[in-house]
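ugh ok fine here u go
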Amino acid sequence: LRRGVDRRTPLRVVDRVLGGAIAVLVGALSLSLIGSSISVTGTPGVSTMVASSQVLRTIEAVTPRPVTETLARIRSAVLVDGLPQLGVLLDLDVQPSAPPVALDDPELAVAAASVARVSGVAYACGTSATGSGFVIAPDRVVTNAHVVAGVTAPLVELPGRPAREGTIVYFDPIDDLALIAVDDLGAAAIAVSAPLAPGTAAVVQGYPFGGPFTMTGAEVISSGSVFVPDIYGTSNSQRDIYALAAVVEPGNSGGPVLTADGDVAGVVFARAEADADRGYAMTTVELEPVIAGAAGWTQPVSTGPCTG
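structure:
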């Protein structure tokens, strides 16, 4: 084709300019896919350097959002689908009726600055997982225990900040919560609200498929204290949870459920097995022990066996 263009038309220069531009574009997207794939594996040392690369961060910033979301879905094929799918724990048939929260609210933007992408390698299983988390206290990020099960050095990435390796200082496989200590994190803790009543509109923030940050509308359609499996599926215990009318994807695990004022009202931990538009989140009742002890936990703890 190039020889034909060069010989028979005056488009030689146009052909070469467009060819060069396409080559640069393809190269940049390839770098972005490879670099982000390495970073979300959470490999100690390597992932931190790659995730903090200014070149890759710039490429990601200028890449159209639909493209970055597509790349994230492609990349997720090599990651563990860490979002549990559970049966009917609460009433899922209620239809949402509350007016949705305005997603451009400045208070939600403030909260978003403290919502992190969390990733890591569970070497015992040879798997990588990615999820979400949020700052709950100075230099402390909370996430789901199933996100970091078997992980020793999780990678924490906040918007606009270099990626940092953290230390897991609290791990509860029954209530599915873990706390990551990150020195000099420099991000504000998000305020915590009382549990929401059914019929209340909310917002879910996080990093589905380990890709770019997203914010989606949600509504609490039911709530209650019910028996929920632990992260290994070996026992059940009572936990205060919500059923949400919301689309939650792998990678949303550990992300916050926020009020219209940008306060944390819950933590996403699962989705409904039979309905892609229904998710589950624990209420702030489950967060209270973590909030109370966050500052005092400083030593590394075991993260148990991996779940993958």
